[in-house]
Amino acid sequence: MSLPHGGFKCSCLPGWTDTHCTRPTCSPNPCRNGGSCLLQRNNGLICNCPPGWTGTYCSQPNCSPNPCRNGGSCLLQRSNGLICNCPPGWTGTYCSQPNCSPNPCRNGGSCLLQGNNGLICNCPQGWTGTYCSQPNCSPNPCRNGGSCLLQRNNGLICNCPPGWTGTYCSQPNCSPNPCGTRGACSLSNNGLICNCTAGWMGLYCTQPTCSPNPCRNGGLCNLQVSNNFMCSCLSGWTGTYCSQPTCIPNLCTNGGSCTLEGSTNFTCKCGPGWTGKRCTQRHCISNPCMNGGSCIPLDNSFHCACAPGWTGPFCLMDVDECTSTPCLRGGICIDNVNSYMCNCQSGWSGSNCATGKCLSMLHYGSECMTTRERPLNLQLCDKLSNYSKPAYTY
């Protein structure tokens, strides 16, 4: 540059000084964008440029090699040099500063800052890798017996057993019924339970058992090699549990005829002299007739021939001999077993109060001896006919 009095002065470029700009200098630092200045004996000075910059003074952006750290991508900008697009969990000019907001850990992983060491992701079961983005079936993340399958695009999936659903098979589910046809499913705080029907046990009612015996009506339970049980039914019964009656062969004994009622019951029409569910009991075997009565078997029932003084279907009712009013002359009848007794009015006696008693000076209270004796009831006695005539006053 020219001076007012005809001289000149050199305006040196960064990194040079002296009258003719022939002496290199690092003060002030001519290197831009964080480059470091180094003086060279023969070559003046050089700038050691940081990643992403090149040129004499580190003023030219450069994405090769990539200056962005931790997986950041480098983009050249016309006016701003370059920028780094940082991956989740990193920030700063060169993606060198760890950051947990927003959370870079995927699939439910938790982010932890580690000071100078950046950050780490604590991954849940089934995931691994720096950001928990790589599916992993070891150890198995699927619960309650679920099987883990790796997927190309979706990470992993759990194939849940019956009764369980959700990403990791952790949610109990009774639809469809995991107990099959062998139990009833119910939900509880601990998941689900199967209330197994007779003959089955285990978590999902898949294990056969003969204790307690599931076979009804005397059937015998046998465990099978094919993971099942079989009931050997007694005569007259069929079905898985021996609960279905069959009249072939005849269930009714002693000549009884069998009739099916629905799918679970039957009736027997018993032969003469027999009774009971299967016609095994004789009508008179228990001697139902009381008080000395005799049992007479009939076709489908019996008849009690009662002893004297008793009546009713089972000879339990005492015959009332007073119903025929056997006591005469106002006598009171007292019923006894197979007999009666009369309490006669004054002046009368006998089993039926038919005999009169007379009042006599000589024979007080005795039977009238003559028609002139005075009876107790103011009647005259006819000794011959034992008939009392109206009394005469004299």
TrEMBL record:
SUPFAM superfamilies (alphabetical): EGF/Laminin (SSF57196)
CDD domains linked: EGF_CA
Keywords: Disulfide bond, EGF-like domain, Glycoprotein, Repeat, Signal
UniProt keyword Zinc present: no
Cross-referenced InterPro entries: EGF, EGF-like_Ca-bd_dom, EGF-type_Asp/Asn_hydroxyl_site, EGF_Ca-bd_CS, Notch_signaling
Record flagged with keyword Repeat: yes
Pfam families reported in the protein's UniProt record: EGF, EGF_TEN
Disulfide bond entries: C49-C58, C86-C95, C160-C169, C233-C242, C306-C315, C344-C353
Gene3D superfamilies named in the record: Laminin (2.10.25.10)
Name of the molecule in the record: Fibropellin-1
